[in-house]
Write a structure and sequence with these properties.
heterodimer; A: alpha+beta; PmbA/TldD fold; 6-stranded antiparallel beta sheet; about 35% strand; globular; B: alpha+beta; 7-stranded mixed beta sheet
């Protein structure tokens, strides 16, 4: 049994008879290194731990919950969190759908998402990864004017959830990343590109790929022009597609739908997308960086089909949103650390791969824009209304081939319309950090605003 | 329970003794020993930052109080600079052993350093505290619930088409101590209070959203019944108005930005590009342009941490420097950048008190405080009246910039078409896109109706509270990213 789980069990003994209690504990170590112009700019190493407590009391009209958290596992912090959570209960409304999760018999997927090499690799080796990456980018292409940043970072974390309603879960995970941002210059302007490689441990990182990705993305923008305003097809590259899926995932939360804050509200069973679209959330797929055995309430994560051949088939639920919808949790609770309370959300989105690779899709699309980076997702895309307007950089598609680079334009539509307008889903699935994988995705028509 | 006493009487902090007090998070003696231990390992610069933050959050959704959540984060961040390299470590363990371990970890970059002979003796600590009439820690939790309910009722009173109202009330008390090897030894106690009201309106055309914040570096007094009602009704009306909205136009158009949130334009179009870390790496389109004309002569832009009560107000930055008012652009000419300690030291100049960090777990970096455009002398109504066709942006929701290219976006949350000098159809939300240096030259009118708006600024994964401000103003042309052809 993990040490954290033992501590959590001892804390749970402090629950009073007339209340239910849930304890979430986490701790971890992390490192980050930034290289700049052949030297180390900074090195951060840290350990942290935290506790989140929820106390629940049942009343005639439903349950009330109070919560508290602290960024420490020392006895004073733990005792204080329990006291505060208990004190907060009295101020909540009674909620007929409120309940802690109870074991539901679903077995957690056996995943190995932890590699202790994160903790055992000497700091000098990590520093060298950042330096090596910086050197590769700086010397990789004469058109590179500046390596704005070259970073290595990693973490090793463990967590436990335990409750008086029978939940008892613990898990650990690790991650290691390198990323770099590069500036290339043409006669008139700077252009930037960003590259990344991610794994569970330092040895899984592909520095060459991160470097060449950043360089290619910056240098292919050289000479970019601002095109005229027009309506045309848009092809999103795997990375930008993953960002779009993450927004859609927000709309497929059972909590957002149940609270009337999603354009999917009231549409279960209806056609919401092109028949080419099958979207699943599957944290049990070990290829996904966000793969997880347990959700934020300690239930087993599981595969949920959200859209099947264009039809809205399901949503992800945590316990509360499931009870409101008259169903059961899909193991879809997300929890933003100890300070967050569980809420339903997608963790590992994946669009079922299509038949065509990127080159074939470009050929079939013929004319349009190829989108390689997005800007202003948080200010221009709403999973409530579905309104969609984002700044992009990319390239024109002419006669089925990538043509001149474009800058300082927006593409706009609505998410509802875009889902119906999907014409191609690529076969080139890419596993990316974050909550969605991505592949090439073609949309029949968007408004491109330029000069 | 030193902190509870201090909170009961905020003024007592300003008179705190500097050693061994129950009020202290760590003793001055321990801070001094830690600094000297780091210097002894050959560091050029050492800093100890100790923070204790309590947060309280109350939320209401679907007419129900979801509940209260209380949190506390306490720990120390230790920064060591050797040459051009910074080492950083943080710990939640404020004991002698905890600080020593963090100091050792942060000092690992000092290997090869010559074993220093410098020692620092801390003098008298300078102490600051946010002025507040009603300290949030003294407010009964039931009063917070009343505010949530009041906002909910006020929003729903705007009409039955308001189908969802979500209200969140957050307050925080952030105490920190900072000391460094150059003699900085200071503390601040910052209070912040924020109420967010989000509404959803439902109509035949689907759902639309409205949002209004009240946020101040003040106490509970900012949540007066009138202020809460006004904000809640404003959020509701914004959602209701958009039910009839049409897709925004697309392409280059004149755009009038209403007073307040339009300041986000400057935050993105040039604010981030004037931060000295981007300048030092020549990753900003404004590098090397001090003394040059970079904007219309109507543009005088200031970053000012001293505006008491505003969301970006601070008495001290997170490196222990007293906040100041810094003119960045004067009548269109670039006058200065924003600086933190490290970049200022390398440039051989003084910092401008723009060194900020999200928490003790983060390295400080150059950040904005309250960034605003000075008011002009045009009339706001006249600016609209003199615009034959364009877009009027009543409220902006946020934005993003790439400092290296200067390209930036900002998104509308309330906008109208201008036709023949009058506001006509409401428009659906969209982003506007432009290039900073080009857009700054297109400011062709600035009115006198100045106001500020609060925001949360994210950079390299760190979030800090900032203010933005301007008076009603016009851009002769910018690309509007709507879905209409």
């Amino acid at each position: 049994m993990s040490e954290l789980l033992e501590l959590a069990e001892r804390l749970l003994e402090r629950a009073h008879e007339n209340e239910a209690m849930e304890i979430y504990l986490s701790r971890g170590v992390d490192t980050s290194v930034r290289a700049y112009e052949g030297a180390v700019e900074n090195v951060t190493s840290a350990s942290s731990s935290s506790v989140g407590v929820r106390v629940l009391q049942n009343g005639p009209g439903g349950a009330r919950v109070g919560a508290a958290w602290a960024g420490s596992l020392d006895e004073h912090a733990l005792a204080d969190a329990i006291t505060q959570a208990r004190e907060n209960v009295a101020f909540a409304s009674e909620d007929e759908f409120m309940s802690f999760a109870s074991p539901d018999g679903v077995s957690p997927a056996a995943l190995n998402v932890t590699n202790d090499a994160v903790a055992t690799t000497p700091i000098d080796d990590k520093i060298n990864l950042a330096l090596d990456l910086e050197r590769r980018v700086r010397l990789g292409d004469a058109r590179v004017r500046k390596v704005e940043s070259a970073n290595y970072s990693d973490y090793l974390a463990e967590a436990a959830i335990i409750s008086t309603s029978g939940i008892r879960a613990s898990w650990s995970r690790s991650g290691a990343y390198v990323s770099t941002s590069v500036i290339a210059h043409d006669d008139e302007r700077d252009h930037t590109g960003w590259g990344l490689s991610a794994g569970r441990a330092p040895e899984e990182l592909d520095l060459a790929r991160a470097a060449s990705d950043a360089i290619d993305r910056a240098t292919r923008m050289l000479g970019a022009v601002k095109p005229r305003t027009m309506k045309c097809a848009a092809v999103f590259d795997p990375r930008t597609t993953a960002t779009l899926l993450a927004v859609l995932g927000g709309a497929a939360s059972g909590d957002a739908v149940g609270r009337g804050r999603s354009f999917f509200a009231g549409r279960l069973g209806e056609v919401v997308a092109s028949p080419l679209v099958t979207l699943v959330d599957d944290p049990t797929d070990p290829r996904h960086f966000a793969a997880s055995s347990f959700d934020g309430e300690g239930l087993a994560c599981r595969r949920t089909v959200l859209i099947e051949r264009g039809e809205l088939r399901g949503l992800v639920y945590d316990t509360h949103s499931a009870r409101r919808a008259g169903t059961t949790s899909t193991g879809g609770a997300l929890r933003a650390g100890a300070a967050g309370t569980p809420t339903a959300g997608c963790r590992a989105l994946q669009l079922l791969a299509g038949e065509d690779d990127a080159a074939s899709i470009l050929r079939q699309v013929g004319e349009g824009v190829y989108v390689t980076s997005l800007m202003g997702i948080h200010s221009g895309v709403s999973p409530v209304s579905g309104d969609f307007s984002v700044g992009v950089t990319g390239l024109m598609i002419r006669e089925g081939q990538l043509a001149e680079p474009i800058r300082e334009v927006t593409v706009a539509s609505t998410l509802q319309r875009m889902l119906l307008d999907v014409t191609h889903v690529g076969s080139d699935l890419e596993w990316l950090p974050g909550n969605a994988a991505g592949q090439t995705l073609a949309i029949a028509e968007l408004t491109v605003a330029g000069a | 329970m030193g902190l509870a006493e201090a909170q009961a009487d905020p003024t007592s902090l300003a008179r705190m003794t500097i050693t061994g007090s129950d009020h202290d998070l760590v003793s001055a003696d321990l801070v001094e020993r830690t600094l000297n231990e780091i210097l002894g390992r050959g560091a050029d610069f050492a800093e100890v930052f100790v923070e204790d933050r309590t947060t309280s959050l109350a939320t209401l959704d679907q007419r129900q109080v979801d509940g209260l959540s209380s949190g506390r984060d306490r720990g120390a961040g230790i920064r060591v600079v050797v040459g051009d390299t910074t080492g950083f470590a943080h710990t939640a363990d404020l004991s002698d052993a905890g600080l020593r371990a963090a100091a050792l970890a942060a000092s690992s970059v000092a290997r090869g350093g010559g074993g220093g002979v410098r020692e620092i003796a801390l003098g008298e600590r300078r102490n600051f505290t946010t002025a507040a009439d009603v300290d949030p820690s003294s407010v009964e939790k039931s009063r917070k619930i009343e505010v949530l309910r009041r906002a909910d009722d006020a929003a729903r009173s705007e009409g039955a088409a308001i189908t969802q109202v979500q209200v969140a009330l957050a307050d925080s008390t952030r105490r920190f101590l900072v000391a460094n090897s150059e003699g900085v030894w200071a503390s601040d106690r910052q209070l912040r209070t924020r109420l967010n009201i989000s509404c959803v309106a439902s109509g035949d055309g689907g759902l639309q959203t409205g949002f209004r914040p009240i946020a101040a570096t003040r106490g509970f007094e900012v949540l007066s019944p009138d202020a809460v009602d006004t904000a809640a009704r404003g959020a509701a009306r914004q959602a209701l108005t958009k039910l009839d909205a049409r897709p925004a136009p697309s392409g280059d158009l004149p755009v009038v930005l209403a007073s307040g949130s339009g300041g986000i334009l400057f935050h993105e179009a040039c604010g981030h590009g004037l931060e000295a870390d981007a300048i030092a790496k020549s990753a900003s389109v404004y590098a090397g342009k001090v003394g040059q004309r970079v904007a219309s002569e109507l543009v005088t832009l200031v970053d000012d941490g001293t505006v008491a009560g505003e969301w970006g107000y601070l008495a001290l930055d997170d490196e222990g420097h007293e906040s100041s008012r810094n003119v960045l652009i004067e009548n269109g000419v670039l006058t200065d950048y924003m600086w933190d300690y490290l970049r200022a030291r390398r440039a051989g100049r003084t910092a401008s008190a723009n060194g900020r960090r999200q928490s003790y777990q983060h390295l400080p970096m150059v950040r904005m405080t309250n960034t605003y455009l000075l008011a002009g002398d045009a009339d706001a109504d006249e600016i609209v009246a003199q615009t034959p066709y364009g877009v009027y942006v009543a409220q902006l929701g946020g934005g993003q910039v790439n400092t290296a290219t200067g390209n930036f976006v900002f998104g509308t949350t309330a906008a109208f078409l201008i036709e023949n000098g009058r506001l006509t159809a409401p428009l659906r939300d969209c982003n506007l896109i432009g290039n900073g240096p080009e857009i700054l030259t297109r400011v062709d009118a600035v009115a006198g109706d100045f106001s500020m708006t609060p925001g949360t600024c994210g950079k390299d994964g760190q979030q800090v509270p900032v203010g933005c401000g301007q008076a009603t103003m016009r851009l002769s042309s910018i690309t509007v990213g709507g879905a209409a052809a």
